[in-house]
Every structure is written in C-alpha cells, then in structure tokens.
Amino acid sequence: MGTAFRSYVPARVEDDRGTSRRTGVSSPLLVAVDDDPDLMRDVERELVNRYASDYRVCCLSSAREALATLEDLAAAGEQVAMVLAGEELAGAPGSALLAEVRALFPHAQRVLLIEWGRLGTAETGDAIFEAISSGRIDHYALRPAPPPDEQFHQAISTSLLRWADAQRRAPYTIDVIGETWSGRAYEMRAVLERCAMPHRFLLAGSDEGRAVVTRAGARRFPAMVMPDGRVLEDPTDLEIAAASGTAVTPDREQYELVIVGGGPAGLSAAVYGASEGLRTLLIDSGGIGGQARSSSSIRNYLGFPRGISGADLARRAYQQAWVFGARFAFMQTATHLARERDGVVVRLNTGGVVVARAVVLATGASYRRLGVEPLEALRGAGVFYGAAASEAPLVAGQDVYVVGGANSAGQAVLHLARYAKRVTLVVRAASLAAGMSHYLIRPIEETPNIDVRTGTEVVGGGGDGWLDHLVLRDRASDELERVGAYALFLMIGARPHTDWLPGTVEQDEDGFILTGPDLSDAAVRAFGRRPLTLETSIPGVFAAGDVRHGSVKRVASAVGAGSIAIQGVHRLLTI
C-alpha cells in the first residue's frame, strides 16, 4: 500500500498483516481523520481501547492523506466499516471528505464528529441536516469525553450494527441454502423477512454454500441453518416461526386482548396492553413489522436522531412486548371474527380459536400486485414486492428499478443506491412531491446514481429464469420503451387486509375499516351507546394503523393509534 498509517492490531487476535487467526480474513477498518492532534488523541484512544480486538483502527491527520489512503485500501480490496471525520478539516467541512467515501466504500458508515458545545445550535443542526439530506454523511457523533464515554460508544456501535446488517454480518444470522433463487427458497426468505430475522441466501452450488452445507450436514433443500447449528430441511412456515411464536389451540383460549396484525400499530397495542396487565395475544399471518419492516432507515421517528431501520424497530418492539408478557402467534391467519355471548371469537386457519374481551384489528395494508404476468412469474428471481432489504446485496453493480411514489419507495431507492450501479425510480405521478416527504426527495435528487422517471409506469418485462428487461410507458405520450433491468422492486398502492372480516364490520369503498365518528347512524344506534374513538361497528373490536379509514400512513401515527386503541380497551372493560 502506498500510504502509511497508524494501525492498531492486538497480537492476541491478529497477526502483523491484520488477518484474524480465527477466520483467516482481514479485519475491517475504522478510519478516523482529524487535523487537531489533541482531538484526534481522544478519538484514537476510545477506538483502540474499545474496538481494536475486532477492527483495525486507522488514524490520519488530514483529508488529503485520508483520501489517498482510502483509495489505496479500496484498490487492495480491504473492508472499511466506518470513517469518522472532524467537523472541520484544514478550514473545509469534514462532510466534504465523507462525501468522497461513498464512491470508494458504499457501505461504510460516515460519521461527522462534533463538539459538545455545538450540540443544539441552529447552525450545526442545519449543517448536519443538510449533509445527511444531500447524502454526504450518514450520522454524527459527539466527540468523546474522558472515559468511560458510553454515549460516544453508543453512537459508534449503532453505526457499526448498521454496517454489519448491510454486510449480512450481524450476529445470529440465519443461512438459507437453496438450489435456485426462486420457488420455495424465495418463500422461505420472505418468511424470515416478515419475521424480521437476520438472514442471508446462498446457492447450494456456490463455494460458500457448499462450505455451509458440509459444515451443517444439510441433505435436502431448501434448508435453513440456524445460528446455533440446527438445520431445518424444507421447513414449513409454521416451523420457521416456531422459535419465536406459539401455536393457538382449538380450545377457545381466553384472553383479555387479542391483536390481529404485527405491524407498528399492532406491536404498539401489544406493548401498551401487556404493560398494563392485560393478558395479550398478537396474531399475524407473517411476522412483525408490517410494511415498516421494509424501510431501511426511518429518520423522522421520534427519539431516533440517527434514524432506525423498520426491521430493527420491529425487533425492539417485539422484545419489549414479550418482556411485558405478550404472547405471539406467527404464520397463523385469522379467518373469522364474531361477537358471541362469552366475548369476541377469532378463528384461525390452523384450527385455533381464541376468545377475547376486546380485539384490535391492525392487519395493515400490502402493496398491490402489478398484474403483468411475465413479471409475476419472476417473483424472487429479480422481481420483489417491498424493499426486500435482504436482496439488496444481490444487485451490486447492476441496473435496478423501483416502482412507487411514497416514502417507503424513497427509502428503498436510497438504500439500493449503495449497492447498485444505477437505480431508477418509476413514479406514476407528475412529481415526487405528490406523495413523498421532502427529507427524502432532496437526497434522491442529489445522489448521482439515482434517476427519477415521473409520469411513467411499468407495463411489461421478462427474462429467462431471472429478470433482464422491463417495458416502460410514458403516460403523457403513450410511448413504450424497453430497458435492461436486473431487478425490480415494487411498492405501489395499498390494499387493506380486510377480506376475511364479516360484513358487519363497516368499511369504506376501498375496504378500509370505519371507526368511531365515521360509523353509520345504523351502527351507532345498534351500540346503545356512543362508539369509542377507534371502535368499529362491532362493539369491543377496534381498528388501528393503516387498515383504518382516514389513517395517516406513517409509522409514528400507527404507533400512536395502537396506544389510543388500548385506551379504548380500558374504557370498554370498565363499562
């Protein structure tokens, strides 16, 4: 390597080349840059003391030296997990250097170091917002104080977890081994995605796939190799979910609260219901997180200034509800709901039956199907519904397309741009502003490998075993264009999951559930009392989240609605 740098590598873990004796693989690097030697000394101390057993720590004194070193590291095929830069380097903003990192190491976390005294100032806040919105940095961290500074390390470890997730290096990652990309192997990946379980996919015939198969002893595919070494050969959805769920029996189990749906609204209801002492069961035909699970970074959610992925938020909420005593039944679909003498009865496709004093419907909505038969035939083989975070590494260096105009599509585009050569966002509307937040529009416009095609829709496409092209239609001119495409991510429209509900649950013309003041006069008269805020036309049954008519399609709104529904449940139980 042409540029020298200070690298700290403990002898007990790695040899003098920075290669781990345990794995034979070079440890990733943490690169820190600051031209103030006193400030760099503090950063260097904290990084070496806390992280040098697993990462090589590289400390540099100028932006020029840092850029040259990073170019050498990229040419050598090294892995850089994080680059930290001082707020100002030789009179220039440190964010300028961090912006250059993206082209060399697309997945490296880029963190701007700021002084404690500048936290909360309008100037610094505006600068950080501008830098994140324009894609020049990922996060910020306060410079370390005298040790132990756990706030500094919380920021660093959070960023490293994001990097590990992107690299599929997160702990407790499940290996899915399949002989083909599509078919049951894809369905298994989709199940794990719905359950927010970290996983990666390996072809059985690949070098890494053969190594995992040999080590685990798998014989029948597709197979799952669990982090503890257990092997599930061609498991059913229920078997996949069994590790984190429970089966509902036909014995009319009694609960005070049953929640149908495990998205943000359902998880919120589970947390608040269980924490307040209600015997609570949450049922979901998939897993946890709903549509929010596909969001790679939710930056406008209260309390997470550095953002949080939808999957991480779902995992945290699940664990929170679980500790409070909520039970979960995954991969089990509610098929019938009715008020009977002893309570509200919910029947499941597995034969299970539960009776509840109150039910919260939080079944959400899913993306509409495109309806192009050749593309539907390629689901899992280049065509994906949702952001499919687990599939993002597969599109490295390729041209991919995203269809959708809401925030979830914007988040997916920015996430995929870290992997793909070029990402094209296809939007039916005339502008992004019609359905997307400003904080997403700005970085989309400024990311060089993202194109936006407004007033356009996908009407065709295909491929031999894997997607290779799409047909786009200009809605104004009706002109058709064939384009090469390696992957297509579809995030269009919203269809509420209400087909299973009885006709006595009032819905609007699009199938969203009516509640409270939106109920018909006939429904209100049948109550004999005023319906509670989120109560449906069936007394004791509430609706929250995206499935409800008039709801705001945002994670924070869904979480708030879940808590409001529990307020209604408490009022109901005292009537």
Automatic annotation (TrEMBL):
Q: Tell me which domain of life the UniProt entry assigns to the organism this sequence originates from.
A: Bacteria
Q: Which reaction does it catalyse?
A: [thioredoxin]-dithiol + NADP(+) = [thioredoxin]-disulfide + NADPH + H(+)
Q: Does the keyword Oxidoreductase apply?
A: yes
InterPro entries referenced in this protein's UniProt entry, alphabetically? CheY-like_superfamily, FAD/NAD-bd_sf, FAD/NAD-binding_dom, Ferredoxin-NADP_redctase_2
GO MF annotation: an example: thioredoxin-disulfide reductase (NADPH) activity
Keyword tRNA-binding on entry? no
Keywords of the record: Flavoprotein, Oxidoreductase
Q: Where is the FAD/NAD(P)-binding domain?
A: 256-562
Entry protein name? Thioredoxin reductase (NADPH)
The species this protein belongs to is Geodermatophilus africanus
